[in-house]
# Entry
Amino acid sequence: MNNVYDVLAERGFVEQVSDEAGIRALLEEPITCYIGFDPTASSFHVGNLVPIMALAHMQRHGHRPIAVVGGGTGMIGDPSGRSELRKMMTPEQIQANLEAQRAQLAHFLDLDDGKALVLNNADWLTKWNYIDFLREIGRHFSVNRMLAAEAYRARFETGLNFIEFNYMLLQSYDFLHLYREYGCKLQMGGNDQWGNILAGVDLIRRVEEATAYALVFPLITTSSGAKMGKSAAGAVWLDSEQVSSYEYYQYWINTEDPDVGRFLAMFTFLPLKDIAALSKLEGAKIREAKEVLAFEATKILHGEEQAVKAREASRRLFAKGGAVGEGVPTAEASMDDLTVGIAVTELFNRVGLCPSRGAARRLIQQGGAYVNGTRIDSVDLVITDQDLDGGAILLRAGKKRYCRVVVL
# Structure
């Protein structure tokens, strides 16, 4: 079996490492590695997929991954990449988010029989007495070195809260704790975590006189510079209650052309030789590669059955004269409302195709709103039961966003 370091490098996961030769040698045998995750939301989003997929590759190559959901550090907040203090959360909020995130991780990792672990760092961090922590852990940190870290330096202009200044110590102790309890020798994370992860490597060296390693991923943006995990409708969540399998499929099939090969490598498990062949497609044929990307990404998260439904629904909608299939986002309206009539701007807002009636008005004025395949020419249009076609009304915003309105 290939060394997983080479697999990660070939697929675009490796941005920086503390010791390339050392990590490659380390990964010749099964090890335990970990990545920390922010518990401030009840769902991961597409932007979290790089670390999640990296852990999945580690497990597929015989290593044991640990996902640490920061119930302890989340009560403080990581200053990395932030211009202001993060919102403080209650332990109850963090615990609820942790449980939801664990369920999502189970789509990517085999959590049975300890093959992968999901841990909450509150279990060990909250047991510390502050004075004891400073004496045993804090004494190993140089304030001068901490201030030089990008995560802190970038906050000087807006102000760095003292509570955030402790974050590096806590994350470093996480690594030390996992090294002691689970033999964890590798921490991975986003490139913005480089300073924090190296601090943990250094802490293990100082306290345990042992060698640990750091590997960080590139911060992924699209070719146009957009941040991963965002769409016209908002964040692309992994929770199916917030983003349906069809909507998730649509996010991937709308990938910008230059990103298709890169995203196939990072967000699917397809063999690289297959990805290389798909990456060579050009012109109209590149849609075939996008369809493979969308199907494979959706299958990993939602299962093959839902991926098939999403693909078929997408094909029907985008085929000329195609019928609306199962899987398309659906909203409900009462027959009483339709009998009286609903302003089209209100309906587009109500079903989530536009964030406001004003946005719906602008969409119509720009020629981007459709009802049952017909472009809307007037912002004063009223939708009634006369618009029902086969018991439903098909709304479209732009070229690719649909919603099927059915009667209650």
Summary: The domain at 4-217 is CATH 3.40.50.620 (Rossmann fold). The first strand starts at residue 16 and ends at 17.
